[in-house]
Amino acid sequence: MKRVFSGVQPTGNIHIGNYLGAFKQFVELQNENECVYCIVDMHSITVPQDPAELKNNTLNVAAIYMATGIDPKKSILFVQSEVKEHAELAWILMCNSYTGELSRMTQFKDKSKGSESAPAGLFTYPILMAADILLYDTDMVPVGNDQKQHIELCRDIAIRVNNKLSGTFVIPDGRYLKEGARVMSLDEPDKKMSKSAENELSRISLLDDENKIKKAIMRATTDSEGTVRFDIKEKPGISNLLTIYSAFSGVPIKTLEKKYEGRGYGEFKKDLVEITVDALRPIRERFNEIRNSQELPDALEEGADKARAIAEKTMKRVKGNFGLGV
Ligand code: AMP
Ligand code: TRP
To answer: Which of the four pLDDT bands, split at 50, 70 and 90, describes residue 171?
Structure first.
């Protein structure tokens, strides 16, 4: 069995892009692997957070993991800050990373915009991520393509350490999600659907009700041609809606194009509303069931205990190899 690790930040607005691009695949992986799924709250404080909101979002995301099908008996589900070894290993890795390689990270460049007052944590963010991964002797990291640079950095650091102190880390592989799983914004289909976009109608959040889903889809940007055809370049709006339709229904895009031949966008969108509402209903229902029940804190406590047991073992080996402690 392979050890799988992935993390999601506890920010609000988890949307169908996150679901199709990440959660759905996390669920599929848990049957054949030993999966460790983490809500990375320490990563989210690299930018200012309201404390009450952060706590609420952490529990929401944990409940979303469970509502989408992560079984805390099969997988380890936990909150990053509950296992202090993440921060401990991050420090050791920081001492084995170069400022040059960190300054080349595009996410840092985007988020800091060259500002002198960017938090140092934003700069070292990828090292905390490397610590998350290496702490669990991870074989495989399922993530979006946007994380490729961070995964490569993690591998570089691990290989660098192993060259000096052999056998310290397991070298992980990234498992990148297919382009087809990339969901674009509903109002500006040349941009990725995102948690932070101003316009609420640019995304469908996993917990949106039927009215919001309907409004967002019916108003989604299309084009003036009027044929339901997949063509990312010329028809990014309809292509995105086809991607979503196909992902939720399991029907190939080619088949959908045939089905809607000679029919307008209105009809296609109406059907997509139904498909989406049906796909999200059980998730929303399960979420409401879990979110305020004792099941949630119990699962997270059990998850943190299991994670800690692995993390402590790894740290013992790592510290021993580095000559740290007595
Ligand atoms: P985030 O915390 O928003 O960076 O995303 C968490 C996970 O969802 C990552 O693995 C992302 O690659 C994936 N993800 C985020 N946005 C999208 C999107 N629009 N389409 C597909 N996957 C996405
Ligand atoms: N940086 C990742 C993101 O923004 C989240 C993350 C943190 C992560 N630690 C991780 C992903 C470890 C995979 C493995 O999506």
So the answer is: very high
Distance 250 CA to ligand 1 centre (A): 20
Identify the nearest ligand to the CA of 80 by its number.
2
- Predicted pLDDT of residue 180: 57
Question: Which segments of the chain are extended strands (E)?
Answer: 2-8, 33-39, 76-79, 140-143, 173-176
Ligand 1 atom index nearest CA of 145: 12
Contacts of 34 (CB under 8 A, 6+ apart): 1, 2, 3, 4, 75
Nearest Cα to Cα of residue 61 among 22, 5, 111? 22
The structure tokens 């140092």 sit at 120
DSSP 8-class letter at 147:
G
Give the separation between CA 35 and CA 102, rounded to whole angstroms: 28
What integer pLDDT is reported at residue 176 of this predicted model? 87
Phi, psi of 219 (to 5 degrees): -95, 0
Structure tokens at 276: 């989406």
pLDDT of residue 29: 95
DSSP3 helix / strand / coil % (the chain, rounded to 5): 55, 10, 35
Q: Which residues line ligand 2 (CB under 6 A)?
A: 5-7, 9, 40, 43, 129, 132-133, 141, 143, 147
Distance 146 CA to ligand 2 centre (A): 10
DSSP state of 19: I
* pLDDT for position 27: 94
| Predicted TM-score (pTM) of this structure | 0.92
**CA-11 nearest atom, ligand 1:** 2
Q: Give residue ranges with CB within 6 A of ligand 1.
A: 8-9, 17-18, 21-22, 143-144, 146, 181-183, 192-193, 195
Output the residue whose Cα is nearest ligand 2's atom 8.
7
As separate numbers, helices (DSSP H) first and strands (DSSP E) second, the chain gives 14, 5
Q: 79 CA to middle of ligand 2, Å? A: 13
